[in-house]
Design goal:
about 290 residues; alpha+beta; Rossmann fold; 3-stranded mixed sheet; 7 helices; N,N-dimethylformamidase beta subunit-like C-terminal domain-containing protein; DMFA2_C
Amino acid sequence: MVWAEEAGYELDYLTQHDLDADPGVLAGHACAIVVGHDEYWSWRMRDAVDRFVDGGGNIARFGGNFFWQVRITDDGGTQICYRDPAADPVTGTDDAHLVTTAWDYPPIGRPAAESMGLTGSSGVYVRYGCAAPRASGGYTVYRPGHWLFEGTDLYYGDVIGAAPIGIAAFELDSVEYTFRRGQPYPTFEDGAPENLEILAMCPAVASEEDRWAGTVPLGSGGPGESQGLRELTGRATGDDAPDWQYGSGMMAVFTRNGGTVVNTGTTEWVNGLVARDFFTEKITRNALDRLGG
C-alpha cells in the first residue's frame, strides 16, 4: 500500500476479519483491493465480497493462494482451521458447509473460483524448493489486447516480471484450462465464471521430484505440505492419486452483475512494485484507475 499512497490513490484500510465482523463494511466504496498471501477466508468474508461484486463493486486482487475456509469465533479473537474435514467437529452436522478445509473439496460445495475467478487448488507453487525451481518467475502474456495491458506495448508471448523480479513465484492461483488456437480458455469444471478471461500464465506445480534429499521444501516423495495436500485431496474425492501435481498460475478477469474482478493470482505481485518494474506498475495503475474511479 506504500506504493499506492505514493502514487496518489486515496485508501481506506481494513482486515479480512473486518469482512467477517461487518458484512456491509465495503458499502460506499468503488473497489476493494486485496494484497499478498490471502490464503484463509471465512464463509462470511466471502459473502461480503460476493455481495459487494453483485452490487456493482469491483475487486482488484494482487494476491495469491485463495484456498482454505476458516471459522472466526470469540468476537474475532480465534481463527479455526482443521484443514482435514475428518478432524473438524462440524463435519456431519447441519453446519457442514462451514467445515474448515479447502473451498474446492467436499463437503463445502463452494468453488473458490466463483468469488475470485481463480483457485489455489491447481498447481500452486512456483520457484519454491522442488516446485518448478527454474521457471522464469514471470507471466507469459496471452491476451495483450485486454484493457488491463493498455499502454504497456506488450505482445503475445512477452514475459513480464521474470527473475530477478519474480512476480510469479511462491504461491499462485489458476483454474482448469485448455488451449484453442494458441489461447487459454477455462474448462469451467471447477466453478470458473462463464466470462473469465485468462490473460497471462506461468507453470505451477504441487510438487516435483526431490533431487536435493529434503534440503529444500516440497519434495514430492516424502512428508511435507504438498504430500499432505495430495493425501487430503484423495480422501475428499475418493481418489488415491489425484492428478493435480502440474498446473499453472494465472492472471484473469471476469465480470458479474455489474462488478469486475481483476486477479493477478500471485502472492509476489508486490515484488514488481518494489522493483519499480514498468509493466507491473502500469498494470496495477490500469486496474486501480478503471475499477476505483
